[in-house]
Amino acid sequence: MLTIAVFPNTNKPEAPAVLQRILSFYADKDVRVIMPVEEARFFQHAGYGITDIENVLTDIALSIGGDGTLLGVCRRYSHHAVPVCGVNIGTLGFMADIELHELETKLQKLLDGDFHIEHRLLLAGSVRSGGKERFLGHAINDIVVKGGVARMLHLGLTINESHLLDCKADGIIISSPTGSTAYSLSAGGPIVNPNVRALIVTPICAHTFNIRPLIIQEDDTVHVAIASIPQDTIITFDGQVCYRLLPGDEVIVKKSEAQAEIIKFEDKDYYQILRTKLWRQGGEQ
Questions:
Q1: What is the 3-state secondary structure (H, E, C) of 138-167?
Q2: Fewest CB atoms within 10 Å of the CB: 130, 170, 202, 204?
Q3: Helices (H), the chain
Q4: H or E element, residue 62
């Protein structure tokens, strides 16, 4: 029996109908569908609810929402090798691979094993404060240090043991290749194929011409020292989880030992997705 964990976004009005299509499709098949308890109750399917779902033996995790929903599921399974597939009911759906018009077809492919898994780099973020280093969490897209509205930071950037420069900027983005089409791209960073083994360091509105986006090796460690900051300076993980930072803190970002596993189908490739999701949409706006 195949166990599929379903994570529907409770804020998406289309989610109830999509969830019902999934439950109906697998109802007469050798599949066990499970859901987090809170979501199961919210959608009035309490019988599918499972406590501590991340630690239940699962074959596939299925997100219902946009890319943000998929990112959250990937972080939930950062310590377990569970492949994640996204059903797109968001605005862009760059990572979520299933569109609504092909839902049942792709659900059957999941059942048949007719897919492949891409192993995506995960970022690990820590902070050194008062001489002690504390692990904060994982991100699949990016880890960002930034101040509040219109507040400039004084940052020091070091790669491994080499101090590169001190600068004033609104913040700095450390991105994986998967996240190169997210916040980093908006800040002027490059588009990097997610299968390239690298990290991307992108400044946010730097007040100097001496720093440009950097593509560095995946095994490099990025250190961001915070000399002086406003009180509302934070570090964010995929834009979804955040922690406050203090003057003198040092943020440390490196490749995680864990990986994200993303399900992909043979009828789509990365460059096709770039064309249809990113550039074509941009041309229509």
A1: EECCEEEEECCCCCCEEEEEEECCEEEEEE
A2: 130
A3: 15-26, 37-42, 67-76, 103-112, 183-186, 270-273, 280-284
A4: strand 60-65
CA distances from 187 to 177, 271, 285 (A): 15, 21, 19
d(Cα 32, Cα 122) in Å, to the nearest integer? 28
Note whether 203 and 213 are within 8 A (CB). yes
Residue 232 a catalytic site member: no
Q: Helices 15-26 and 103-112 meet at what angle, rounded to 10?
A: 40
197 in Cβ contact with 178 (< 8 Å): no
Catalytic residue among 67, 97, 142, 249: 67
Q: Note down pLDDT in tens along the chain; length 285 residues.
A: 999 999 999 999 999 999 999 999 999 999 999 999 999 999 999 999 999 999 999 999 999 999 999 999 999 998 888 999 999 997 777 788 899 999 999 999 999 999 999 999 999 999 999 889 999 999 999 999 998 766 788 899 999 999 999 988 999 999 999 999 999 999 999 999 999 999 999 999 988 777 899 999 999 999 999 886 666 789 999 999 999 998 889 999 999 999 999 999 987 778 888 887 776 654 433
